[in-house]
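Shipment paperwork, digital attachment
Item: protein structure file
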Amino acid sequence: MRGVPIRLRPPSRRPPAGPVPVASAAEARARGLLRRPALLLALPVVASCVQQGDLGRPAPTAWNSLIDAAGTLAARERGEPSSFFPYTDDERILRDRSWRYLMPARDRSLFDNALDNLTRARVLPAEWRLSDPRAYLDAILAEPFRSPVSRYRRLSDDLTADGRLIPAFAETAARVVRADLTRLRSLPFIRTLDDRDVRSAAMRVAENRCLIAWVRRETAARSDSYRTALEHLLVAVPSEEAVGAERALAFLESRRRLLDPLLPADAESRCGLAPAPEEGPQAGLVTKG
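Attachment content:
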C-alpha cells in the first residue's frame, strides 16, 4: 500500500486517445453550470437549500447530485485528482460517511454553511477555509444556555458522536484501499484499456486516498477545537461535568488513531492539504488536577 504513489495532477492536458465515455446527465449539467459565471456565483446561495438526509448527510436528490458533479469538474480544472468512473458501493458509502468530518462541528450562518457544503463537494478548494481552533468554542459560547453545564454536555455529545462514527468510516476506507490496490495491480494485465481508462483508474485511486487523508486531517482539527473549548470552559466555568467531557475527548482520540494505518504519514501533504494540528497534551486536564 505504501509503495503506490499518489498522483495529484494528470500527466498531460491533451485529450487521451480512444473513445470518450458519455457523461452522465448530472455531469453534463454541471459542465454548463461551471461555464456560466453568473450561476457559479449564485452557487453559495442556492447550495444553502441542500436537503439533509440522516446523520447530517445530503439527501440523494437531483440537486445534490448536480453539486457533487460540479465539484468533480471544478477539482479537475484545478488539477486535483478526479475521475468520472462511477463510484463503487464502498466509494459512495465512504463519501457519505465523510460528510460529518468535512463539515464544521459548529453551527454557522446560512451563507457560511453553503460555502462549507461547496467545499465538501470540492466546488471550492479545501484550503480556502482557514482553520480556527476557537471557532467551535465561540459557537457554543454564543448559544443561549441557562447553565454552563449545558455547554459541557454539548461538548461531550459532539465528542462522543464523532468518536462513534470513526470506526465505520475506517472500515469502509480500508475496503476502498484494498479494492484500489486490486485495481492498480490488474492494470498491466488488461489489454483492452485505452489511455483514458488507465488515467481515470489512477485518478480514482488518488481521489479516494486524498479523501481519506482529508478526513484524517479534519478529525485532528476537530479534536484540537474540542480540546480548546474544554480548556477554556475548565478555566472560565469549572464544573464536575468537565470530567465527562475529558473522557469523551480521550474516547475520540483513541478512535481517531484508527485512521493512521490507512495511509502514509505524509499523505496529507502529498494531497496538497495543510498538515494536521500538532497533537496537544494527553488527557488529564481534570483527572490529574
